[in-house]
């Protein structure tokens, strides 16, 4: 019977330790990727502001995913949903400014996040920044500890998207 109390005590101690560790982790997770593109900002904007181009460059859903598009024909208000096996998600363009940025809300295996696709002209090149922000919730803060693992997956997704956009804009030139 004594071993049962030891196990219960260890479980409670682990729970309290995770809560304390999570308290010190920021409530918002921010992940980004940056790439320089050999294309003008408006060409890049045309690609990132059209959800129908996302299967080609973003890596969202994977190569075998099925996509459905809706909402506005272009710009703000576009929506898309994808499915690949048991995984699925959706995207919606919330805001866009031609030649500058596109703000997209995504919901998928990594949860809900807002992704900013920023474009800035830099001489003959265009700087492209993808930044994903996700709110991690509050007490008991254990979700913040679990999100550390998601941070790596989000960074890999951002890197794939940056490389995919770079390859797509090179092919268009």
Description of the molecule:
The chain is α+β, with helices and mostly antiparallel strands and 173 residues long. The protein has a single domain, classed as Alpha-D-Glucose-1,6-Bisphosphate, Chain A, domain 4, CATH 3.30.530.20. 38% of the residues lie in helices and 38% in strands. It contains four helices and seven strands, in the order αβααββββββα. It has helices spanning 2-23, 41-48, 54-57, 142-172; strands at residues 28-37, 66-71, 78-84, 87-97, 101-108, 111-122, 125-135. A seven-stranded antiparallel sheet has the order 1-7-6-5-4-3-2. Helix 1 packs across helix 4 (142-172). It is elongated, with a radius of gyration of 20 Å. The termini are far apart. The mean pLDDT is 88.
Task: Quickly describe the structure.
This is Polyketide cyclase / dehydrase and lipid transport. This protein is α+β, with helices and mostly antiparallel strands.
Q: Main beta sheet, described?
A: 7 strands, antiparallel
Helix content: 25-40%
Total of helices: 4
Number of β-strand runs: 7
CATH homologous superfamily label = START domain
Strands in their spatial order, largest beta sheet: 1-7-6-5-4-3-2
CATH topology: Alpha-D-Glucose-1,6-Bisphosphate, Chain A, domain 4
- What portion of residues belong to β-strands? 35-45%
Organism: Litorimonas cladophorae
Protein name: Polyketide cyclase / dehydrase and lipid transport
């Amino acid at each position: 019977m004594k071993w049962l109390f030891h196990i219960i005590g260890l479980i409670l101690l682990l729970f309290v330790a995770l809560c304390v560790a999570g308290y010190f982790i920021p409530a918002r997770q921010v992940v980004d990727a940056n790439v320089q593109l050999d294309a003008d900002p408006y060409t890049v904007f045309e690609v990132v502001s059209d959800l129908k181009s996302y299967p080609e460059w973003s890596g969202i859903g994977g190569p075998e995913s099925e996509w459905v598009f809706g909402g506005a024909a272009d710009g703000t208000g576009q929506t898309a949903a994808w499915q690949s096996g048991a995984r699925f998600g959706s995207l919606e363009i919330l805001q866009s400014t031609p030649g500058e940025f596109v703000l997209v809300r995504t919901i998928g295996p990594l949860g809900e996040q807002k992704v900013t696709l920023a474009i800035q002209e830099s001489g003959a090149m265009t700087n492209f920044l993808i930044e994903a922000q996700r709110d991690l919730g509050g007490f008991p803060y254990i979700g913040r500890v679990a999100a550390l693992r998601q941070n790596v997956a989000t960074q890999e997704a951002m890197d794939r998207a940056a490389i995919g956009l770079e390859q797509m804009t090179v092919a268009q030139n």
